[in-house]
Amino acid sequence: VQLQASGGGLVQIGGSLRLSCAASGRIDSINDMEWYRQGPGKQRELVAAITESGAPNYADSVKGRFTISRDNAKNTVYLQMNSLKPEDTAVYYCKAHYFYYTDIGVPVVGAYWGQGTQVTVSS
């Protein structure tokens, strides 16, 4: 599976951006998908997650401002970011969890990462 993230850019405080992450390859094995971010000098942190059925979950720092969604027909997960703040500046990564059985019935579980897209919020 390959994950291609896009939609980052430079935006002013209070502005909005929409990130997209398109999956290709063995997409039938994908279940939960997540967005992470890593700001300058900071550790990578979980921003939002969404289950295969569409149930979302958010970090406290983005609740009420960010919305995660997915379109399973397009194999794409989105992150709508509103009311952006300087502290939202980071490289944003998408992550897709997968699970499947091999031909001989062995369960395989793991995760793929996208390449990251830069979001910069300027004052």
If you had to describe this structure to a student in words, what would you say it looks like?
It is built from no helices and eleven strands. The chain is mostly beta strands. Strands 2, 4, 5, 6, 9, 10 and 11 form a seven-stranded mixed sheet that branches. Strands 1-3-8-7 form a four-stranded antiparallel sheet, with no helix packed on it. The radius of gyration is 15 Å and the shape is elongated.
SSE topology sketch:
Blueprint (H helix, E strand, L loop, with lengths): L1 E5 L2 E4 L4 E8 L5 E9 L6 E6 L5 E3 L7 E6 L4 E6 L8 E12 L5 E7 L3 E6 L1
Parallel strand pairs: 2-11
Antiparallel strand pairs: 1-3, 3-8, 4-5, 4-9, 5-6, 7-8, 9-10, 9-11
Q: What is the subunit organization of this protein?
A: single chain
Count of strand segments: 11
Element string (H = helix, E = strand):
EEEEEEEEEEE
Helix content: under 10%
Mean pLDDT: 94
Straight-line N-to-C gap? 37 Å
What's the story with the biggest beta sheet? 7 strands, mixed
Strand proportion, as a percent range, falls in: over 45%
Rounded radius of gyration (Å) = 15 Å
Show unreliable segments. Answer: none
User: Which geometry do the CA atoms define?
Assistant: elongated
Contiguous helical run count: 0
Keywords for this entry:
59% strand, four-stranded antiparallel β-sheet, mainly beta, 123 residues, seven-stranded mixed β-sheet
